[in-house]
């Protein structure tokens, strides 16, 4: 029995299913989580399916979460999507069910759960859920699920620009576009930003530091975020901006949090950065990761490590 067959058999065995995703969600987190929920609701209308987690942080045009009492978890199946490490799971009741399934496309550094399906070759967890849906005749996609899964794929591939985009990614996306939803509107919603973030983008371009080997960084202190009227979740929109600069090879966006530490968003066009991220309380994909820096001294250390990676890559 394949892992997909095991997952389907397990889903069939449970009347109550609670689906989680990671904190600070992006479109793939919401797309895979609620896309799976909508898929299961449509395929198994007799089951009770719930989506839980903290605030969706500006992604409420995709979906919202449900308030679920603790007693729902008794005897329930819990599924966590798009979350590599258990500390990142939004809503710490994920381990209160009868069985736990992990579905993810990040490196499997922590294989938590009773059943694990990890595919690091997938562009997104949403692509994995869509593949799951298209594999079995017992599963039936609907318009709501297709819209969410398409949003997750578009979000995690940067509109199909990132290296993780494969022929299978495009084949799955084409299948999802057969359903009735406004993909043009959805793409606009995924792309549009408020004026405050547009002004922050200008600051990033004006203040980006790039060394001769293509290592780049910009530091966004709390005072700046307050000046621009920006919260941390909105800075996700500017993370990819250095990538359009020809001389930028790998970069870090260092966003100071209200508590004083820095959230570090790392991206690369070549040098592998996820091992660097793991050294600083983070992780992720080889070319897209996140980490944390306790202070400006650790910010400097991380930037020096990015510089070393770029220098080695250029040799």
From TrEMBL:
PANTHER family: BIFUNCTIONAL OLIGORIBONUCLEASE AND PAP PHOSPHATASE NRNA
Domain DDH: 17-153
GO molecular function, one term: nucleic acid binding
Pfam families the UniProt entry points to: DHH, DHHA1
Protein name: DHH family protein
Domain named DHHA1: residues: 245-311
